[in-house]
Amino acid sequence: MSLPTILVADDDRSIRTVLSQALGRGGYQVRTTGQASTLWQWVEEGEGDLVITDVVMPDENGLDLIPRIRRIRPDLRVVVMSAQSTLMTAVKATQRGAFEYLPKPFDLKEVLAVVARALATPATPVQPLAPPQPDEQMSLIGRSVVMQDIYRIIARLTTSDLTVMINGESGTGKELVARALHEYGRRRTGPFVAINMAAIPRNLIESELFGHERGAFTGATSRVAGRFEQAAGGTLFLDEIGDMPPEAQTRLLRVLQDGEFTTVGGTVPIRANVRIIAATHRDLRQAIRAGTFREDLYYRLNVVPMRLPPLRERVEDIPLLARHFLNENAEGAGSVRVLDDEAMAQLQAYRWPGNVRELENLMRRITALHPQESIGADIIAAELAETSSVAAQGEGGSGAAETLAEAVERHLRRFLSSGQDGMPLSDIYDKVIAEVERPLITMTLAATRGNQIRAAAMLGLNRNTLRKKIRDLDIPVVRGGA
Asked: Cβ distance 195 to 227 under 8 Å?
């Protein structure tokens, strides 16, 4: 039996050499080229069992090859690699029929895993979508490993209408991700309608979601369409779903189960023709245990879970983000502000409790208040000190840097005085330990890219103990590292 042949196209000789050696050691035959035209010739001649191609090559864009390859050899898998590492690249690769997208620099073990999976996966027909236009690109910025994983998930989800649950701290960009899923998806020609559950009075949520008939309640002088009707044919984004009151949860569950709803005061069923994307900063598992969120609704919404990392987990993206926000605010400021190396180092050392939104606001403030083009560490230190002082005063602190023990004590004091999100104060030892363990294990797994052996070593735990904690705490594991 002959070994599978991998066709590699990249104009970088070193990339070709590294891949050829790694794939050869992995038990594959390899043919490499720096030209898209040579790759196309091999494909036309029936060569190869798998293609790995770069995007930017001297004679043709690798993405343009994918539909042509799929037309003449639909069983031939194509893996795309790119140094551009943007959401647009991942989306285009997926929508044109690529099996997988690998950002550069890549991990060779990950490449071998993708190759093995591609060769073992049966081919499926791909219905290509109209390519997204460059001016439609959402402001999702970052080349970190965690952001590349987000890009891949978004790209894969653009070809389906699956319900998505986005979890992330305030300011991480949950609505941006929801809009990207809509703008690059099959419902892009329909409306994108967002509603923030935390901003709507409890007694108005059902009317906001489902609409009402004239005379349904005092002040209802005419029929009003709700968000489900407004979003027909498009996407309905339910932000802060964890703040939805129980009675509205029950009606939403019924809509998800039956696929139709009635307006408040109405009797005629209306088909719910929307894609649902929900988001929350809360731990809904904890809310379920506390009895404030329906478990059956959670499973209806949590079809595809997505976790957006806080900015402190992707500090390598801070320079890209900071420059982007400074450029955005340059118009009207006379010139683009530039951060020196020490200033950038200070930004990367900061914890960013407000995440990307806080960084954006800081760059806006610097552009408006500081006329000099070069921004030094002294300006950053002063601005961050002011921000930290205001935040500390809001918590009743003095503005000094807070230790981990002090932060824990502060949160425990609040927890014990009033309960957390309405949680009954019983069995608090296990609940508090779980609250600490879950983010600790989640962040350690993120740092090791899902490698449980390395995570167990970092935590000082037995691997089986770590596996049990992951299972008991329902921690999602994304494998992608060595």
From this structure: yes
* pLDDT range class, residue 479, cuts 50, 70, 90: low
If pLDDT is split at 50, 70 and 90, which confidence band does 481 have?
A: very low
Instruction: Look at 120-124, 129-133, 146-150, 291-295 and tell me which has the smallest mean pLDDT.
Output: 129-133
Pairing of strands 77-82, 50-54: parallel
* The domain made up of 5-120 is a member of CATH 3.40.50.2300: yes
Own/partner long-range contacts of 245-249 (Cβ < 8 Å, ≥24 apart):
245/202, 245/205, 246/292, 246/294, 247/206, 248/197, 248/202, 248/205, 248/206, 248/209, 249/293, 249/294, 249/297
CATH pick for 427-481 out of 3.40.50.300, 1.10.10.60, 1.10.443.10, 2.40.30.110: 1.10.10.60
| CATH 3.40.50.300 intervals, the chain | 145-307
pLDDT score recorded for residue 426: 58
What pLDDT score does 470 carry? 87
Q: What's the pLDDT score for residue 231?
A: 96
145-307 is a CATH 2.40.70.10 domain = no
Phi, psi at 166, each rounded to 5°:
-100, 125
